[in-house]
Model the fold of this input.
Amino acid sequence: MIPLNEARQIISGKVARKGPATVALGEARGGVLSDAVRADADYPAVDRSTMDGYALRADETSGDLSVVGEIRAGSVWEKPIAPGEALRVFTGAALPPAAGRVVPQEQVRRTGDRIEIVQPEPSHFIRRKGEEARAGEVILAAGTRLGAAELSVLAQLGVVTPQVIAAPMITHLVTGDEIVPPSASPGPGQIRDSNSALIAALASDFGLEIAQAGHAPDDLAAIVSFLHEPADLILLSGGASVGDYDLGARALEQAGFALHFRQVNLRPGKPLTFATRGDTAAFVLPGNPVAHFVCWHVAVKLALERFLGLAPRWEFLDLEVFDGQLPRPDPRQVFWPAKVVIRDGRPGVIPKPWSTSGNTFVLPDTNALVRIDGTRANEGTIPTLLVGKYDLF
Done:
């Protein structure tokens, strides 16, 4: 049995970033840029008005001015503005040559084709050419995860087929004679499969999908056959322990995988197994759903971050324990399901009541795992890992 930190170091060292792929902009959400994206021009490309008002020369601060035309957004006025002249402009309009300021319409009095500035102020109300970005400037760095804001920026830059890190192909096999589909009525000794829905949703929250999923009985040949299917990451649910019918590790070895660890000093999730074969990584996850949830966030997600070239999201907040009871000290490192809430303007955490990792009902509204070491007192603040939906948007 190895410490969790050592297990994470092994995973980091055995999983490598995938190569680049070109995707359509509409399919890029959740992707990770493989190369930096640069501005294709100055932004804005010309000086633009930030207000509805009148464009004039910078030295025109008062007096009576002649309105010689108007410029709407999308139109162009090529003639330089002359002394004593003003042009009616609208928000976003490109300013003509020699225009040095815009006076908002609320600050002038207009009579026919003439205006008088009645409330002068020093502001120019102009977005200067290139003030947001210069041509060639890096706007999105390589390794940026693409959410709503980043997709908007790519569209603004005209990047309609971004280069991203290829999404890893994930396959998932639930094992066990006792497993029946969610639609079935379990017989004596049987349980419905909740892990397939859990894993598929966790992958989706991370911006990925399960390419192939299935169920196999406690049959070594059936599991080995699945392990030979193409995949970057294989997840086996169940069969992680050392009983006669816990076939995960044996199947991995028979399929040509090298085992790197079989037990982690972790609660829940002690029988977590990790193996690789070439560029393919595989986990055997302990069958209980809470163990699945914990192992995903402390181990599987790290492998996905490595495939995508992302920096691991592994930061703990020291939060006050508002309510609930933390467990007794345990020789294992415990990751206890909890809920982070805001009270009186400050965050705190409420540990969930649960006794076994088979209790799926503890997972709804769980958005954190509190880390409890063997000597941790059940008071004060507690290191808390935020989990749940991957927070992109």
Remarks:
- The mean pLDDT is 92.
- The chain has four domains: 4-16+167-307, 21-42+139-165, 48-127, 316-386.
- The radius of gyration is 30 Å.
- The longest strand covers residues 333-343.
